[in-house]
Amino acid sequence: MSAKKLAILVGGGPAPGINSVISAATIKAIDEGFEVVGIEDGFKWLLRRETSHVRPLSIDDVSRIHLRGGSVLGTARENPTKSEETMTAVVETLKALSVTHLVTIGGDDTALSSSTVAARSDIRTVHVPKTIDNDLPLPAHIPTFGFQTARHVGVELVQNLMEDAHATRRWYIVVAMGRQAGHLALGIGKAAGATLTLIREEFEQKTVPFARICDIIEGAIIKRRAMGRHYGIAVLAEGLIEKLDPNELKELQDVELDDHGHIRFAEVDLARKVKVELGGRFKQRGLRITISSKNIGYELRCVDPIPFDMAYCRELGNAAVRFLMCGGSGAMVSIQNGRMVPLLFADIRDPSTGKTRVRNVEVKSESFRVAREYMLRLEQTDFENLDWLGKLAQAGNLSVEELKRRFV
Q: Mean pLDDT over all residues of the chain?
């Protein structure tokens, strides 16, 4: 048996480029004398001390998988750090498999699990950051892999919806994935030229009334109607759900939590809730507006990566193995200015929570300023011209005083 044995596993949700990392890491490791095995379904079977879901990987197995979406090793959200027993089981099972080096591919939760393996054993670990949410603590100009592909495909979907909205004179409420950060929603909305995009970062307060979110979109619909356009698209980041008052959140639907304690946003249909609320508001005022809801996320996670992510993920997979070969361990690998830069887990962890820090959208940045400038919302200047104010009131079937009371 080889003195060096590398295991590769994938945790969390899928993202375009996973197979590119697996391919690059496997080929590089074999070329450097490692035996390589793939562990299926993340930490799921390891914490159950099950070794039948481990298979050898050869260059022939992985040489062309970089072109494909999904994950040839599967993925799972099992959290081995939830108890001492499960963490011990993972380490001991890896030891029983004679694993000396471990490459994990995933988001912040998988990074925490990887760092814990390194802290509790002599197994050298390296983590490759993966999430379409783009929310890991990399430098501002460095995306997480999969984000660019997800944005690319998301823009295509929203462009199609925009044409449908135009043709059928309707509004679409689109909710895009992004549990803690609005990068994906903003990236899609900005590039596609959506009527407006709402992300959690623009609201400084701890909780945001559901009515406030609906007010902003309603104001945009009224403004578009006053301009003679009876259609549009509002893109919302799903992270807005975490901004809602817990009592309001309970009213949306029964809320389920995953193994990491996060709300299963797929079970909370924010888009439909907004659609129903807005439709009811306009109906009460004698206006019939067709509004449709759409959630975008699962459609993006397993598409074939665009060339950017194919090439980027090859660099990351290669860098991960080089980091281990140099004696490194317990870090997340990144590519910055064309060079491998390891980020120690201790340096990217929030000391108050013990979890990996989140990179949020910087609302004071030039990027957000430009995105905001091209959105259509009711602004203070809309209430300064009496003629325009009358048109707005007429478009919303409100009196001028009601309009001002509602939206100023």
A: 91
